[in-house]
Structure formats: structure tokens, C-alpha cells
């Protein structure tokens, strides 16, 4: 199969969202994925390895890997530590049973 034969990621996700179980899991992971993108971007912009970022955050490297993969939803304590160390700012919206990252810098 050629890369050009593959469906775009957005199309695959839209198709998978037809399954209620997938849709629920996907929607519940939005916040974790948004934080992951912000953290990966920060690390890349600063030329840090996961281990170096883990050292700055005083956590183990596998914890950074889980946060960056979006598989782990960060706690408020973890977000506070990230902001103290990195200078990042997270603006959260908690409504309708969900937590959303309304803005990240």
C-alpha cells in the first residue's frame, strides 16, 4: 500500500467515531491530547529529551512519555508543576462533564 492510498487521519477518526464506544473514549481523551501537544511542542522548541524534561519536572521519564502520548490525563498538581518549570500557561474550561484546554501558550 502506498502512502497516497491511505485515508487521511481526520477521515479515519470521523469513521471510527460512528462507534459509540470509540466516540466516548476519543472525546474523553481530548484534554490529555491537547496537553500532550503543548508539552511535545515545548520540549521540541527547547531541544530537550524526555529525560531532560523529566529531570526538570522532577518526575520519571516514563511519566513524561505517558503525558506526551496523551494516554495519561494530567492532574492539576502535574499541570501546576509544568507551569512552574516551563512557564507554559494552561486555561481550563470545566463544563458539561468535560475538561477542555481552552488556550495553551
From TrEMBL:
Pfam families according to UniProt: HTH_3 (PF01381)
Domain of life according to the entry: Bacteria
Signal sequence coordinates: none
Ranges where the HTH cro/C1-type domain occurs: 39-93
SUPFAM superfamilies: lambda repressor-like DNA-binding domains (SSF47413)
Alphabetical list of InterPro entries matching this protein: Cro/C1-type_HTH (IPR001387), Lambda_DNA-bd_dom_sf (IPR010982)
An example Gene Ontology molecular-function term: DNA binding
The species this protein was found in: Micromonospora marina
Protein name: Helix-turn-helix
Amino acid at each position: 500500500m502506498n502512502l497516497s492510498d491511505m485515508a487521511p487521519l481526520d477521515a479515519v477518526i470521523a469513521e471510527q467515531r460512528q462507534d459509540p464506544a470509540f466516540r466516548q473514549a476519543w472525546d474523553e481523551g481530548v484534554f490529555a491530547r491537547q496537553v500532550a501537544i503543548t508539552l511535545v511542542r515545548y520540549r521540541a522548541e527547547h531541544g530537550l529529551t524526555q529525560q531532560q524534561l523529566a529531570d526538570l519536572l522532577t518526575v520519571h521519564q516514563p511519566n513524561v512519555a505517558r503525558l506526551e502520548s496523551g494516554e495519561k490525563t494530567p492532574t492539576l498538581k502535574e499541570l501546576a508543576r509544568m507551569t512552574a518549570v516551563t512557564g507554559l500557561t494552561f486555561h481550563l474550561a470545566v463544563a458539561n462533564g468535560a475538561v477542555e484546554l481552552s488556550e495553551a501558550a
